[in-house]
């Protein structure tokens, strides 16, 4: 135990990759919150145009995510970090030159591609620089940067847009992108970790781009991201329908704050007792939060579900991600991370599409009951299939 405690977690490399990951997501959450307003108010676009910009981003992200792991594992990781964070900064800065809304569509598509590669790169190398016996704790802290971005992004983006307008928003986002580039590359990755994997002579196959050993946990990530999309996308709309759309910011501040506060405990429990000690109670709490949303009739009852959902999601999500990376060989860390993140991208996109189509028929409460059932199916899949399958391999 004393030896484990001596292993340093907060190295300059790990901190830089965490900040860079946070920057990627701050930019993304700023765009999610502010770009629809920019498109409709500054460019005279429609609500369809605003949705199309998000679709362009998701298409770019999903198209590149499977190849991200192969690129990161097959090329020098130091070069990949430099290229992905640098190009993401340049594309983000390019929003300052957008004569028409069509330029925004193109930029969002390219931003999605680089987001997929960049977030996979920083996540993969962050895991590599973590001490062996503190990976669960470290991945939990790494995910905390994303949770903080969830709070900072929308708040900061809407604040700048309201106070100083579109041009100031795009300048601010470009500066933030530059911070991410600097943070990721300030402390070079050690040569032994940056080295590319030996080129395989097997030619093109699915195994080159996706890590098969990660697939069971990626499937669990898909179920979690599907249910999470119901929270991320529809809680603000639900509160707006209640006439208090501004309270959505309070919901997400509480949701993310609970995740951040509990993160150190979650990481230590994972490393000391194992993932099951997080996943089983985490699912129980998360399902309770979804049930609370399913019966919510007032804004305050929606807000009351935020800490419950944050506590459950904050326990489950990093556990699945850590398991997905740990089952893969170290030289396949990029492919494993890409496999898991691809499932998250698909889950959010699929959840947004499916759940939005049922709201008109069964309302928000009915949609959240359906979302609860999806989460129950995910839990049963974990208990009877995924976990038992992993235990048989041990």
Automatic annotation (TrEMBL):
Domain Major facilitator superfamily (MFS) profile: 14-390
UniProt cross-references to InterPro entries, sorted A to Z: MFS, MFS_dom, MFS_Exporter, MFS_trans_sf
Transmembrane segment boundaries: 14-39, 45-67, 79-97, 109-130, 142-161, 167-184, 217-241, 247-266, 278-296, 302-320, 340-362, 368-386
Main location: membrane
Membrane topology, as annotated: Multi-pass membrane protein
Subcellular location: Cell membrane
Protein name: MFS transporter
Keywords: Membrane, Transmembrane, Transmembrane helix, Transport
Family annotation (SUPFAM superfamilies): MFS general substrate transporter
Database matches in Gene3D superfamilies: MFS general substrate transporter like domains
Domain of life: Bacteria
